[in-house]
Amino acid sequence: MNTRDLEYFVKLVEIKNFSQVAAHFSVTQPTITMALKRLEDQFTIQLIQRDQSHGHLTVTLAGEQLYARAQVVIAQLHLAREELGRIRDKKIRLGLPPILGNYYFPKIARALIGQGLMDQIETVESGSDALFQQVRDGQLDIALLGSSGPNTDSELQATQIARTAFAIVVPKDHVLATRETVRFAELEQFAFVMLSAGFSHVRAFDWFAQHNQMHPNVVYRTPDVTMLKNMIKQGVGIGFLTQLAVTPEDDLVTVKIEDPQQPRFVISVVTRKQQVLAPATQQLKDVLLGKNKDDEKND
């Protein structure tokens, strides 16, 4: 079977117009017609009904079934192209959200250099939601990601390496700075500055808001963690961050949230379940999981 025929067919089901499909792929209309004929001949069943008088296309039940399966085939072929391309180029695309990049990457840099991996790694920074999708789509080989709960994606393998709490972040002269703990319900009067959508912090923040039946006043959102902490320091608003995002150099105060059964910031190493890891990618995964550190202790 010509996989290109499947690509033409999927687009034909979606657009339902031969000439537009042909234009999309920069081919002639007879090319699309012949691709459909080959598929119908191969499966010995009609996939598309054509109403020549009105120019309408109707997808048959068989066509709907093939469409569902063809989408999976095309997606898997796309994954294979991505994976094989990076094996050929000897590059490892590693997804890192800014917080984990700043916190973890410096800690493992020496190990990566020692194993000759550093020059093979291409880091990609974004929010965890976007990076999860990029791992799933094959655009990343591996990622170190944060989430507000366990992985539920059946196509991904997530190995948890740490859990930490979320906290309220304030400048040292803030009224909350002397508090060790605070209930989220007490914060309704304060303005917040927050990370943008796509970060796991947003889902955790929404959990606290819904749990307390609150509508927090978020005055600004940014994907830049450094800018966010500077805005907190300048008193623009209080922040909501995982505790590991705040260092002594930030000159900020973290206040523990008292609410019971609250979500935690879960840190995991994520790959695709069906992915065959190249030796260098497996080495990187071992470093991220801390296996080499354990091996050194046992020597």
UniProtKB/TrEMBL annotation:
PROSITE patterns: HTH_LYSR. GO terms for molecular function: DNA binding; DNA-binding transcription factor activity. Pfam families: HTH_1, LysR_substrate. Keywords: DNA-binding, Transcription, Transcription regulation. Residues 1-58 form the HTH lysR-type domain. One of its GO terms (cellular component) is cytosol. Belongs to the LysR transcriptional regulatory family. This is Malolactic fermentation system transcription activator. It comes from Paucilactobacillus vaccinostercus DSM 20634. The lineage of its organism: Bacteria, Bacillati, Bacillota, Bacilli, Lactobacillales.
